[in-house]
UniProtKB/TrEMBL annotation:
Acetylates the N-terminal alanine of ribosomal protein bS18. Belongs to the acetyltransferase family. RimI subfamily. It is found in: Cytoplasm. It comes from Fibrobacter succinogenes (strain ATCC 19169 / S85). One of its GO terms (cellular component) is cytoplasm. The lineage of its organism: Bacteria, Pseudomonadati, Fibrobacterota, Fibrobacteria, Fibrobacterales. PANTHER family: ACETYLTRANSFERASE, ACETYLTRANSFERASE YPEA. NCBIfam families: rimI. GO terms for molecular function: protein-N-terminal-alanine acetyltransferase activity. It catalyses: N-terminal L-alanyl-[ribosomal protein bS18] + acetyl-CoA = N-terminal N(alpha)-acetyl-L-alanyl-[ribosomal protein bS18] + CoA + H(+). The gene is rimI. This is [Ribosomal protein bS18]-alanine N-acetyltransferase.
Length: 142
């Protein structure tokens, strides 16, 4: 398994993974603008050229943010998400010491994942999502 920065060539597999999990609906243009943004850190995990997961961070000094993280359904619970998350959190020492994220209130799996990695519930944004679900805002401090 290899961790490396995301490139434009990864986008077909990134979009496929996103469709498979149906957890967000970014289009190719949105992923492209992340890859090209100087403040974004876009990382993938792959195995023999098959993309297993990805994460996108904004490294913005004290207010860094995890925008998106996902592991292919068949590969979950094998430590891939943890490796992707750690790769971004390791960058915080260079760019600041806090990382924020938003997650759907009902996404128990992701919330357990973030809590295991030291994220603490910071606040709740009521009816944040278009379907009326609340967002839980988490904060990580190094
Ligand atoms: C959240 C997600 C990225 C975790 O990826 P992963 O590769 O499965 O994560 P890991 O294998 O590194 O899991 C690490 C820990 O997270 C927690 N965790 C992960 N999946 C869990 C689950 N289904 N139930 C409870 N805890 C879970 C556990 O503490 C786990 O450690 P353990 O396996 O030793 O118990 C993955 O579930 C995913 O892609 N979900 C769909 C997309 C999504 O919701 N992204 C987040 C949107 S904000």
């Amino acid at each position: 398994m290899l961790l490396r920065e995301m490139t434009e060539n990864d986008l077909p597999q990134v979009l496929e993974l996103q469709r498979e999990l149906a957890f967000q609906d970014w289009n190719e243009k949105q992923f492209l603008s992340e890859i090209r943004a100087s403040y974004a850190y876009c990382v993938v995990c792959e195995d023999e050229a098959k993309l297993l997961g990805y994460a996108i961070f904004h490294l913005l000094g004290p207010d860094s943010e995890l925008l998106s993280i996902a592991t292919r359904a068949s590969e979950q619970r094998k430590g891939i998400g943890s490796q992707l998350l750690k790769a971004g959190l390791d960058k915080l020492t260079e760019n600041g010491d806090q990382c924020f994220l938003e997650v759907r209130d009902g996404n128990a799996k992701a919330r357990a994942f973030y809590e295991k990695h030291g994220f603490k519930l910071y606040s709740v944004r009521k009816k944040y999502y278009s379907d009326g679900e609340d967002a839980a805002l988490y904060k990580f401090c190094r």
